[in-house]
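Q: Please design a sequence for this.
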């Protein structure tokens, strides 16, 4: 139990509050406190535990990561968020990043009650005023959520992050969509979440510009998720997500609660402009070859990407890796090397929006240039590899994300654990190996069993139910632990779960 000045009017009240709490605690025995503590953790593990047979390091990795996630955040205070190092190190200062919406929320949606994620959504809603301030600082309309923050105002001091890495704004909108899609609860989307969504949509509508030469809308001067490129034009992921936000906002607009709709006062002219941007966003596709000379049809990561010296990572001297510890920043920025998923990140968020051929061509083209020097990179590549039935790659990247800190893959664990990247182990198993999706309001599972595992099982919270999924060499079973029966799609077959 902690008491701070955030909870009281003045220092006198803080001391009095601390004294009251101390009396409450000292009135209880150690055994009582320990029992209550153990019961709370038992309740968390009962919903979230992942059990793996046949691979002790894999089992150790996932439990280690889930423990540290829950020790860092469990939704008890909507004023709080998830720092990239949690409480294990001072790097990043405990600030909030887009990691929360991109990686942590999808896990908490599956292993905790919806109220835990609602607290994270409310955290961003409560900082909406700051997001409007951030956009105004760039002479732009709408709301721009910060890359790094403590209070809603941008706290980062590097221009290529603060002013250019604006893709993070789309992920705040994605979190609203993801919560709604997974829970089936539209109240946030139609209420306070709509204020966030429309503010973000208005930002994108102002940030694009129209190119008469190409008869298309473009976004220049950005940094995508690949931070090894700065100040590029038409980063595919940024453009694609801006288009998606405007489309999503248009779809949600008629459903918004009347009082909030009146407050937002979105005009028909605005919506028409959004629709024009959606129809004419610049998203070039090109024919090229991959590092092995195979033909690939890809989305261009940014306008000048193919003009680089395209030497794959496999051809770099081992003593020059990681490049961020051996090369000048200028050399890194001119290289073709990708820090983490960039073009592929859109396919992680929206796997059903792309064809299998599109996902395969882009994965096989871009992954050989990816150095995975972000702790968030392996899990996305594991999930997409699993989607493409590239099982060995999926397992390889799972092992890397699951044991990133236990095995100190990036040689930086002494700075603190990678809390938000710890989500990757769960995501790789559930979204990757088990193929969990929600399509047309229906839960879909397409599991496979890694070769070195005897079995794995996990529990999943889905629309008021707790399900237990077990995958063995003999096949997959889904058991209803709590809640109403439902019909799911298991390996392509309609299955009643009772």
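A: Design:
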């Amino acid at each position: 139990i902690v008491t701070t000045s955030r909870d009281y009017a003045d220092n006198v009240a803080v001391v009095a509050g601390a004294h009251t709490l101390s009396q409450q605690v000292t009135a209880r025995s150690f055994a009582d406190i320990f029992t209550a503590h153990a019961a709370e953790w038992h309740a968390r593990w009962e919903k979230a535990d992942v059990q793996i047979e046949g691979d002790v390091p894999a089992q150790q990795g996932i439990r280690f990561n889930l423990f540290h996630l829950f020790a860092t955040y469990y939704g008890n205070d909507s004023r709080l968020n998830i720092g990239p190092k949690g409480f294990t190190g001072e790097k990043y200062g405990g600030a909030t990043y887009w990691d929360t919406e991109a990686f942590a929320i999808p896990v908490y949606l599956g292993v905790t009650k919806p109220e835990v994620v609602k607290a994270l959504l409310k955290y961003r809603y409560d900082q909406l005023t700051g997001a409007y301030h951030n956009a105004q600082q760039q002479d732009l309309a709408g709301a721009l959520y910060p890359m790094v923050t403590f209070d809603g105002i941008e706290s980062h001091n590097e221009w290529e992050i603060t002013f250019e890495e604006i893709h993070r704004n789309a992920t705040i909108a994605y979190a609203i969509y993801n919560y709604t899609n997974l829970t089936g609860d539209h109240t946030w989307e139609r209420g306070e979440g709509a204020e966030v969504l429309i503010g973000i949509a208005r930002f994108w509508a102002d940030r694009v510009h129209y190119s008469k030469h190409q008869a298309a809308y473009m976004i220049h001067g950005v940094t995508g998720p690949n931070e090894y490129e700065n100040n590029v034009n038409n980063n595919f992921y940024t453009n694609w997500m801006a288009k998606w936000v405007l489309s999503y906002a248009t779809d949600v607009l008629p459903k918004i609660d009347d009082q909030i709709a009146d407050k937002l006062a979105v005009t028909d002219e605005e919506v028409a402009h959004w629709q024009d941007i959606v129809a004419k966003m610049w998203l070039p596709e090109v024919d090229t070859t991959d590092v092995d000379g195979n033909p690939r049809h890809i989305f261009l990561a940014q306008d000048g990407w193919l003009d680089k010296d395209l030497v794959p990572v496999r051809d770099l001297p081992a003593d020059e890796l990681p490049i961020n510890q051996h090369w000048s920043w200028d050399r890194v920025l001119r290289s073709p090397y990708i820090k983490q998923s960039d073009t592929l990140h859109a396919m992680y968020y929206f796997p059903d929006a792309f064809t299998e051929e599109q996902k395969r061509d882009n994965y096989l083209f871009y992954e050989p240039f990816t150095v995975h020097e972000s702790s968030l990179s392996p899990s996305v590549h594991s999930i997409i590899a699993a989607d493409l039935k590239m099982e060995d790659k999926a397992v390889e990247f799972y092992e890397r994300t699951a044991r990133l800190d236990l095995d100190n893959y990036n040689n930086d664990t002494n700075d603190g654990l990678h809390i938000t990247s710890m989500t990757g182990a769960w995501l790789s198993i559930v979204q990757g190996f088990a193929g969990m999706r929600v399509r047309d309001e229906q839960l879909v599972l397409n599991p496979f069993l890694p070769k070195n595992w005897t079995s794995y099982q996990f529990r999943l919270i889905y629309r008021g139910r707790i399900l237990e999924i077990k995958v063995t060499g003999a096949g997959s079973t889904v058991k209803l632990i709590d809640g109403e029966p439902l019909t799911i799609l298991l390996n392509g077959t309609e299955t009643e779960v009772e």
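Q: Thanks. Anything notable?
A: The chain has a mean pLDDT of 96. The two ends are 40 Å apart (CA to CA).
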